[in-house]
Sequence to fold (303 residues):
Amino acid sequence: MKIAILSRNPKLYSTRRLVEAGLKRGHEVRVIDTLRCYMNMATDNPTIHYRGETLEGYDAVIPRIGASVTFYGTAVLRQFEMLGVFPLNESVAITRSRDKLRSLQLLSRRGIGMPVTGFANSPDDVQDLIRMVGGAPLVIKLLQGTQGIGVVLAETKKAAESVIEAFLGLNADILVQEYVKEAGGSDIRCFVVGDRVVAAMKRQAQPGEFRSNLHRGGTASLVKITPKERQTAVKAAKVMGLNVAGVDLLRSSSGPKIMEVNSSPGLEGIESATGKDVAGLIYAFIEKQIEERKATTRTKGKG
Ligand code: ADP
Ligand code: MG
Fold:
């Protein structure tokens, strides 16, 4: 198969592994810099251009779109979709998952466990907002934050009020969340491919820290997840419409609580913590999807 990897940086571990695993399985793999693609949207004849050439004949595209280029990146991916190329994750699903509020709203509607979460726009309602999520201690998150930056633990009601007021005063979009203390500074990353969790790791925050992000000094280790955690992670990815997702959950006393669903989950942490060939499993999924697509087209052709 001919496969495009949309990535800004061929040197990243995840990109390198996807190239390596694809070549190993006999595919033609090419890394394409998302931002260097330009497109033509003529009626019935959409095209994608790249460094002077027209991109043609691809069977599948693996989007690795960073948070800072979501808008243009999903437009490029959509153009591949218009050409009939199979996207590992669809552009609409990526857009959906990048919006934390929208994601939580969708997950809550489908009955998936999550920390009690509130959001507001006006500093006038802070008292009630705090009451709504069960009072202090609570977690305040900047919607635009990633890698743990912009996630604050307010231990007292006074601290919570000040931080929320300060953020809202700066016109920052925030959400306010129940603090899941039992998690003890750890969370579980479930790597979902299709309808399976193919690898899972536990991330533990360093002492004195509640954020388990590896970028904040957290450490990763292999973990065995429960059937309920497995089900929850797979369902969360399905609700978002993602074939491949990094689903992060907290172990609470009332079961798994989803924090976020990532559409371009990194491979380095999960492959080194679990020793699994996650990149290879991603290709196995793509191969199966393409086979099924071909079979459907053949059947349709006969009918
Ligand atoms: P980011 O997108 O910046 O990674 P997260 O929502 O994933 O933000 O939060 C970062 C980390 O903070 C999580 O991995 C988790 O360890 C901790 N954390 C976040 N929300 C809660 C919560 N409600 N209760 C307990 N710990 C939390
Ligand atoms: Mg996170």
About this structure: The radius of gyration is 21 Å.
